[in-house]
Amino acid sequence: MELSEQLSSVPGILRPFKAFITEMGLAEGAQIVYYGCPGTCTPFVELLAFAIRDLPLSQVFVPYVDELGARKLRMVTEVGMQVSAEPATVNPAVTVLMGGLSMPNVPVSRDQVLTTVGAHQSSALVGVCFMKMFEKMGWLESFDFDLIIDATIEPVNIWK
Description:
The protein is of the alpha/beta class and 160 residues long. The chain has one domain (9-151): Rossmann fold, CATH 3.40.50.2300. 27% of the residues lie in helices and 28% in strands. It is built from 5 helices and 7 strands. A 7-stranded mixed beta sheet has the order 4-3-2-1-5-6-7, covered by helices on one side. The chain is globular, with a radius of gyration of 15 Å. It comes from Methanoculleus taiwanensis.
């Protein structure tokens, strides 16, 4: 896989994701499933879900790789996309792996994620990470991503 585009800011993450999903031409009700760390990945999942809110798709968040804990993403008026308390059955047309899963000290291993992804082989695979985390942790060699969005956070300025 080679670099095809370099964008910036939050739209630089969301626009290519929406373009990829739109270009797939998925059937109405097809499912996008995001796997990530509760709390830290969730806001980014909700941003990605918001970017494709106008497509007739089902969206689900899975904490880590615990598919029994899968929850539907829902639009909340005047708030945005939110993970709901409503359980979901997982059947992804697109699997989205969040980079937090690859970070050290996360309670899942690469092998657990590989097993989960392997159970959904007909699904397209998208990776969304920050600061080259998939590359640093060797996940580019382990997963056959159809799209990778790798964002950089710099600089972070603090004023007091």
